[in-house]
Each structure stands twice: as C-alpha cells, then as structure tokens.
Amino acid sequence: MMMKPISTVRSGIAALAFVAGAIPAAAAFPERAITLIVPFAAGGPGDTVVRLIGTHMARTLGQPIVVENAAGAGGTSAISRATQADADGYTIMLGNMGTHGAAPAQYPNLKYDPAKDFAPIGLMVTTPIVIIARKTFPANNLREFVDYVRRNQNKVVEAHAGVGSVSHTTCTLLQWIIGTKTARVAYRGTGPTINDLIAEHVDFGCDQIVNVAPHIQAGTLKAFGIATAKRSAAMKDVPTTREGGLPEFEVSAWIALFAPKGTPQHVVGKLNEALVKALDDEGTRARLLDLGSEIPDRAGRAPDALQELVVREVARWTPVLKTAGQ
Fold first, then answer.
1. 3-class secondary structure, 51
2. What values do phi and psi take at 24, rounded to 5?
3. What is the C-alpha to C-alpha distance for residues 9 and 67, in angstroms, rounded to an integer?
4. What confidence tens digit (pLDDT) does each residue in 47-92 have?
5. Alpha helices in 75-165, H assignment, sequence order
C-alpha cells in the first residue's frame, strides 16, 4: 500500500485544527448577572416568593439575580416588554395565573400569547386563595360575609391588584358565584392593595396566602375562608370555603418562571436545574411552607409541565371571565 508523504499528513492535521479552531466554543452560562422581571410592585406574593427562591438560584448559578419590579395593567405591561428582551437567558420573568392564564380574557388587545411567546422555565409554587377583609368588617364567618356583601353590594368596595391580576381574577369568580357586583378599586400591585385594606380605606378582597398570612395572624386583616380542599398549616384556624358553605369557590394561584421565546434549551435547562435545587433545599422549603405555599413535585417543575399548565389555565379562565363580564 502506498503511504502518503509525511508533509501531506501534517498539512491535513493542520487544516483540521484550523477548522476546529474556527468553531467557537459555546459560552458558559451565566457569565454575568441575570435580570428577573417581577411585573408587580415590591412586597406582593410573587415578589416575596421569587426573592426567596432567587437567592438560592443565584448561589447555584454563581451569578447575581437582580429583581426588577415593574407594575401595571395586572402585570401584563412588564410581561409584554419582557417578551422583547434578548433570548439569551439574561432576562427572565415571573409569570402567574393572572399574566399567563386570565389575561387573554381580560385584555382583548394583549400583545402576547401566553402559550406561544415564552420559553417556560418551571413552576415555583402554588398558593391558595384566601377571602380577606378589613379588621372591622361586620361579619364573623364566611356565611355572614356572603350575606353582608349581598345585602350591601352598593356600599362595600372590593380591592384588587389590577385588572387581570390573581386577586382581580379570583374575586371576579367569587362575586360571580355569590351573585354580586360591588364597586372595585384597582391598585398597582398586591402590596398597595393590602396596605389600604389594613388602613380600612376599602372593605374586602381575595389574595394569595403567601402575602396575607402574617397580617391575618397579627389581626390586622380578617380571613373568612381559604379556597382549598383542606386547611392550611400556615393558618390552621381559618376554615376552608367548603366548611364555610361556599364549596364552589376552590381556587389556587401559581407562580412560575419564563424566558423569552427562542431562549436556547441548554440555558433553560440550567435555569430549571437551579430552580429545582432551590425547591429541594430544606431551608427554602421550610420558609415557603411557613408562608402557606405548596411546592410542586419534581415532575411538576419541568418546563413541559409548565407549558401544559399555561394551556389549561387559559382554557379554564377564559369562559369564566367572559361570562362574569368583569
């Protein structure tokens, strides 16, 4: 067999080396700080949860996660802007039942499609909804609350965190079930809503247990029912809505992380891995459970599971909200 000259072999090796060198190695992710957009005012339930989980995620990723609060239009304004961010994993966002479930029914001109315009990262927590009121509200249990609102619907005022928000959506469902249409005041986020309930400028609302449990325990807010099948360990004295005579009102919110559509799969994978580790951390879990959050199992934290959840939620809330007409 005829051998190739050494010089030819060497030149071939050199050519291969040149071609290999011309292919850039994939950049390690992350190499700098990550911006996490929270589309609500600071102090709300999503903000509280994401800061807790984000602290652990930052340690896993080796880079800071900078939370940017941007309230407005039930969270949809910031989400609309976030969809335009570079799809590189350095801008991610918090989404919830309002922004990625109810919003299409609440905003006919919504500039994004919850099921098509995002790369889902993973579900963080689910949070039971609690019916709350100012501390001097003239009712002592859920039946009395419903009766009072029905008889005084021209006087009482509901507060919520903006059209399309979780508090707005769930109280829309509540009022639809009990057959009332009270005055409703929209705020730029849950924090201001709770502040005005505590100050007794408004009368009642619906909100996630994560944000209201400390105020209920302190006696600055009343709680008339938690909308789950069983009582919460965080508020054992608060009966379920089923116990209180309103079994039709059972609903939990959810909070999740999303990236802009087109974010590389390996980047989404690293972000999901950091999220999973945070939710497995004993200290983080304990704090979330103390707040009343429910932590999804491993399967429920996967990007595909979040995508399926979004599709189900849009299908669930659209007919309810359109029928309620609020």
1. helix
2. -65, 140
3. 56
4. 888 999 999 999 999 999 999 999 888 789 999 999 999 999 999 9
5. 76-82, 97, 103-106, 142-151
